[in-house]
Amino acid sequence: MLISAKSKLGPRAFLYSGESTNRYFDKNELGFLKKYDEIEKTTEEFFTHTLSAGCCTVGEKLRIVGINQKSDFLIKPWLEEREIKFLTKSQVLIGADVAIPLGSKMGLLGAPFTLVGSLYRTGTGMDRTIFMDIEIARKLAKKKMQKSIFMGKEPEDLVTALFLKLKPGSDVQSVTNRINNEQDIVIATSKAETLSMLEKSLNGWYLVLIFLVIVVVANSILSLFGRFNFMMKERKKEIGYLRSLGMSKGKVFLSLLYEIIIIAIAGGVCGSLIVFGTINLVLEVISVQFLTPKTTVDLFSIFVILFAGPLLAFLIGLFSGIFPILKSATMEPREAMAKGGK
Q1: Which of 83, 161, 235, 246 is the most interior residue, by most CB within 10 Å?
Q2: Please, which pLDDT band fits residue 289 given cuts at 50, 70 and 90?
Q3: What is residue 184's DSSP assignment?
Q4: Angstrom distance (rounded) from CA 61 to CA 301
């Protein structure tokens, strides 16, 4: 993938953030690509606007991207699968995260369009994009955007991104490095390079996350231990009465243990419900802030959220409360009543 060297968005942000960029480069300046025998195909894309609430009938922040249907090899396989030969001047496609019913009529930058299809989820900025024919996108941009953005050139000669498909067996990283080293018009990046950068970033955050989980669990154990220990001290007189009435140490122990388990599981259930209600928002924030592919919550993840929380709370509660309970339940009635609170 080639993007303008003057773009404020890096390759990773370009792919995953869903943000738009109005930094173009002249496709006529890419003649140097002809000497790369490894290149099998190229296709261009032209970004126009980022839509926000109130600008049109679409009420969320979305990219509008024009695709060259004659050379495209990214969207075309999907079109062929849906038996759509060609997007007309008034037809658009949407990404998987754009919540608009198929067949809907919409106004984009003052022009009417019909939605004819929705793409598969990719985890990239494509999921929050509206696609149309590149010539229509350029005409709308010429009509609606400031001329200074085009650097004194015609939109027909400008592109936002150029995607390269290399021949089988080509050294992708070698081609990428050579393109970057011999010119300063565009920045080249490969899928493997972007994924490698993403993997390194995620590995670092995984370590931070693991550390935070350990800290939270340890803090929870210590906090609950203190709370349960205080609770047992406050109830020593009650425990003494029960023991003096003939209740065995084992029954007192189990009674207190059941109570603590119920408290712990109830807290775990409340926590799981809070996580379940906010997980999609958290994933969206992570995707935007850390430039990672957007993920969705599947059935297995829902199962883990709903059951792992109460289970973890049960284990933490059991580990934190077992010693205070055991200590209180094994006290003699006279000692418990003498040391108990009011």
Answers
A1: 161
A2: low
A3: S
A4: 27
